[in-house]
Amino acid sequence: MKTTSLAGFALTLAAAAFTLPAHATQMTIDGNFADWGVANNGTVSGWTPGSGILFTVDDQSNANNGYLNPGWGGQAYDAEALYLTWYTKLDGQTYLALGLITGHDPNTPTGGNNYGRGDFAIDFGRDGSFEFGVLTADRSSTLRQGDVVGTSNADWATGLWSAPGVYDPAHSSYVTKVNTGTDVGNASLVISSSFGNMGTLGGSHWFYEVEIPVAVFGGHWTGNSPTESFDVQWTMLCANDIIIVDPIPATVSEPASLALVLGAAGLACLARRRRT
Length: 276
Ligand SMILES: [Ca+2]
Ligand SMILES: [Ca+2]
Ligand SMILES: [Ca+2]
Ligand SMILES: [Ca+2]
Description:
The protein is mainly beta. It is 9% helix and 32% strand. It starts with 9 loop residues before the first strand and ends with a helix. One calcium ion binds at residues 27-28, 30, 32, 35, 209.
């Protein structure tokens, strides 16, 4: 979901590296984001990760009656930043790593007007159909935190909104957590304790750090690289705010020669046009 930026309340940075380096930095899955190049130093630039990491930043606050997108809730339901990279380890296995910063307390119970944390949702082909979920909590007796689950959209719970600002839980298509599906493997997942001083808008924050062996993706990923474009998104169980990392097609499928011809400026134009 591309967030509309309203001056004075929302800070939106949407940026992506155009290529991942041949040897992207390997992450340590420990709940610490220093290895991503991210810093809670009270500045806007603290959100920006190291080179070779794809990312979206959408830091909001309680301003504007706490409107996020597509719902409300302010800082307590703010999905703030999502980071993505992949790398091949010495064991020859390639891993997809995700980093999420949110103002949503992972321990928020679901009940009354409160909604707990959701799962990471992966859409290969960027066609609105989510092929995999990475579970951030136990969802059934067999689908447990850290599991990677093969899904269709019918396997997912959905949020409270049918469109931005439209409360209609019966018709929401915003996927939130995995109810059912096929356990295809295990990710590493660590959720940090709370921290402050992230960006300039204040509030408490938490960091989710995830590493997924890409072998679980089957034909969607061959060797060191994905075979098709994909999106990763995260939200909480109400889907008040949704954050998406959207690797542009050039990142994963454009021939190197074409990328060289177009250059960074050309790719930026493609990215803008696709988002309109
Ligand atoms: Ca780390
Ligand atoms: Ca946000
Ligand atoms: Ca925020
Ligand atoms: Ca798909």
